[in-house]
Structures are given as C-alpha cells and as structure tokens.
C-alpha cells in the first residue's frame, strides 16, 4: 500500500482511550524515527485532544497498527476496535476533510489546520516527510484554504456549544479577558469547553461532583478543577457560566447568584443552562446583570443557521472530491515514473551508440551529410525496432490492442 492513514478520533474512541495514545511533542521525533524503521518509508503523526492519526507512505497497515498499540503499551487487540485504516484515495479524502474542519468535533473549526501544519513540520524536521506525504499535506492546506475562502463552513453556529460562544461574544467585547466556569463533565460540557477554549479565555474552571473527572477535563484545556460543593466560594470569580449536569434539582439558585453579583460589584454574568431538567433556577433570568440562556433559547439560534451550514458542507465536500481526483491522478502518474525513467535510459543508450558511430565516420573523413543521414536512420531504426517487432509477433486480439496503443503512443494518423 503506497499511502494510507490509520488512527482514532472522537467519533471512534472514548476520551479514556484517546488519552492513552497521545504522542507528546517532546517524544514525537523519536516516534517518527521508530515507525519509519522498517515499517514505513514516510510518516507524519497528527496528535490532538480529539484525534491521533498516522499518515504513512508504503508499508503494511497491520504492522503499523501493532506498533501504534505497543508504543503506547497497549495490546493490539485492545486498541483495534477503535482504529480505522484508510487506504489510498480514502486517506487523501480524510486528510482534506480534517484540514477543512469537516471531521472535527466542532464542525468547521480552524484550529485543526494549524495542528496539521505542526504535524507536517515535525515530520519534516525528523526527516520522515518524503515526496508523497509532502504533497499530501501541501494539497490539504490548499484545499482547506479554498473551502474556507469559498464557503461559509465556519460562519454559522450549528451546535448548542457554538451558539453559546456566539451569544457570549455579544455580551463581552473580547472573550480573551473572561473567566469561564463549566459545571459538569459530560459530553456537552466537553464540547462547550472545546468551543470556548478556542477563544483563549483568561481562565477555565471545571466544577463536578467527582473531582477526578473535573481534573481530567480541565487538564485538556489548561484549566483548574473544583468540587461542586465549592461553587459558592468560586462562582463570583467567573464571568461566564455554562452548566449541564444530570441533577434532578437546580444547582444554582437565585440566592447564590445574588451573593455572587454583590461580590462582583454588579459586573455582568453570562450564563448558559443546557441541562434538562434545569440546573439554574428560572427566577435568575429576571435578575439585573445576568444574561441567562436555556436550551430552548439556543435551539432557536441553531435552527436558524442549520440550512446555511448544510449548504456550506455540501460545497466543501464537492471541492474536496474534485481535489481528491487530482491528487490520485498525481499518485497514478508517479507509479509510471520508473518505467519512464527506464525508457529514457534505453533511448539515451541508443543515441550514444549512434553518436559514437557517427563520430568514427567523421574521423575517417566521410561526407558529413552522409554521416548525418546514417545517424538519423540508425537512431530511427533502433527506436522503432522494439515496437515493430512486438507488432509483428502479436496475434489476434492482442495485435489489435497493440496497434491501438501504438497509434496513441506515437500519435499516428492512419
């Protein structure tokens, strides 16, 4: 297999598996050197919080998958249920979709493009980025640029999490200066944290009943973790609060919010309640200096943007499909390079032989015009000897197919 990708992502593996197969930056060069030691000629590794993928040229996928598992001290059988292996055009299409943000947890997010550029740069520095992978990554970057410049793939919010960020941006001039508190540690909070962390807020805090789960999520985004029972002590320190727990009763009541606002000296708080039943008492919405949005509020914003985003995705997929075809044509052409090189070598040998014969004739004083005539005839006979002999030796259908091929190769007009 000349080109393939293998790995796992947020769609195929839970967080506890993804955490175990991260390639840390300080050991990336070592890993790249190891995988190319007899297992692949070229290699690049893309490792983020949501995916770990190996892009490889030549080699056997099973051997690479075994190495992947063993490198992270896992058995191949334990890791294989979460892995995907994408050969040839599927790998190319996947790389283009990843770079364009179509395969991200946050559809259309731009951060993955920078992460792919880092992966290509690391492979180049390690000496494992050869001709095929270099071409693949450069085309991926070009495709991503085309998708982002010609579609509105990242312009509209199509998830509760994305809508939350968009609404927060209406309240605060810049999210870089805001402190964000996430209450809960489930999938929805994980998605929200992904969106908000992309805005580089001043601080991220995760509060959860189980501190261990809060710490695991906070660690991914460079934040801090607290226990849920410590909310009263920390609530006033945060400008943005996003809550989504499985509690049957509200976690944040009107009295708790009033005390937080007094401590904040009436500085506004933006709050999003994504829980059903609600985590935040309904009366909080009536308070001054509190901007509270519920699931229903965000649903309206999401619904308004769905059609536009679907249209953008369709456009992006069409761009990608066209580019996949072009890349595969380049790959196919590369397979003919050895034959073309051999053909040129053979023709060059014939040319040199006839040139030496012509030089000998000239040194004997023969007429230059006759020498040129002999040189041209000799070279022509040598070049046509193989095709003519093959055509004469062919029989039946083979002769017809060979004749058609010669007409194409030599552009003959019968």
CATH homologous group name of the largest domain: Glutamyl-tRNA reductase, N-terminal domain
> Which segments are poorly predicted (pLDDT under 50) over 5 or more consecutive residues?
none
The largest sheet has its strands arranged as: 7-6-5-8-9-10
- Could you tell me the strand content as a percent range? 5-15%
Shape, please? elongated
Q: Report the total helices.
A: 16
Task: Give me the Rg, rounded.
Answer: 32 Å
Structural class: alpha/beta
CATH topology of the largest domain: Beta Polymerase, domain 2
CATH architecture of the largest domain: 2-Layer Sandwich
CATH class of the largest domain: Alpha Beta
Distance between the termini: 41 Å
Tell how many strands the DSSP assignment holds: 10
Order of helices and strands: EHHEEHHEHHHHEHEHEHEHEEHHHH
> Could you estimate the helical fraction of the residues in percent?
55-70%
Number of structural domains: 3
Largest sheet: 6 strands, parallel
Question: Quick gist of this model?
Answer:
The chain is of the alpha/beta class. The chain has 16 helices and 10 strands. A 6-stranded parallel beta sheet has the order 7-6-5-8-9-10.
């Amino acid at each position: 297999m000349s080109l393939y990708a293998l790995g796992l992502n947020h769609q195929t593996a839970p967080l506890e598996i993804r955490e175990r197969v991260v390639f840390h930056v300080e050991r990336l060069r070592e890993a790249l050197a190891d995988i190319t030691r007899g297992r692949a000629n070229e290699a690049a590794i893309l490792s983020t919080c949501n995916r770990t993928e190996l892009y490889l040229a030549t080699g056997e996928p099973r051997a690479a998958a075994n190495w992947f598992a063993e490198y992270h001290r896992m058995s191949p059988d334990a890791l294989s249920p979460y892995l995907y292996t994408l050969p040839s055009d599927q790998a190319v299409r996947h790389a283009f979709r990843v770079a364009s943000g179509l395969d991200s947890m946050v559809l259309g997010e731009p951060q993955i493009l920078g992460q792919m550029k880092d992966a290509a740069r690391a492979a180049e520095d390690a000496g494992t980025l050869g001709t095929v992978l270099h071409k693949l990554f450069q085309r991926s970057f070009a495709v991503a640029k085309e998708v982002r410049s010609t579609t509105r793939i990242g312009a509209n919010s199509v998830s509760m999490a994305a809508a939350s960020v968009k609404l927060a941006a209406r309240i605060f001039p810049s999210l870089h200066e805001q402190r964000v508190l996430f209450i809960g540690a489930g999938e929805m909070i994980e998605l929200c944290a992904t969106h908000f962390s992309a805005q580089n807020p001043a601080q991220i805090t995760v509060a959860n009943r189980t501190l261990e789960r809060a710490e695991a999520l906070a660690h991914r985004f460079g934040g801090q973790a607290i226990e849920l029972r410590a909310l009263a002590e920390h609530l006033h320190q945060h400008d943005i609060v996003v809550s989504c727990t499985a509690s049957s009763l509200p976690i944040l009541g009107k009295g708790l919010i009033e005390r937080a606002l007094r401590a904040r000296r009436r500085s506004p708080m933006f709050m999003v309640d994504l829980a059903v039943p609600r985590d935040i008492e309904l009366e909080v919405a009536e308070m001054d200096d509190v901007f509270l949005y519920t699931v229903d509020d965000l649903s309206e914003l999401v619904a308004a943007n769905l059609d536009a985003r679907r249209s953008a995705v369709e456009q992006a997929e069409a761009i990608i499909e066209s580019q996949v075809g072009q890349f595969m044509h380049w790959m196919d052409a590369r397979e003919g390079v050895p034959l073309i090189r051999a053909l040129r070598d053979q023709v060059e040998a014939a040319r040199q032989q006839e040139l030496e014969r012509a030089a000998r004739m000239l040194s004997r004083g023969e007429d230059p015009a006759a020498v040129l005539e002999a040189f041209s005839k000799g070279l022509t006979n040598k070049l046509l000897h193989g095709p003519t002999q093959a055509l004469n030796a062919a029989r039946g259908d083979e002769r017809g197919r060979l004749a058609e091929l010669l007409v194409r190769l030599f552009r003959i007009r019968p």
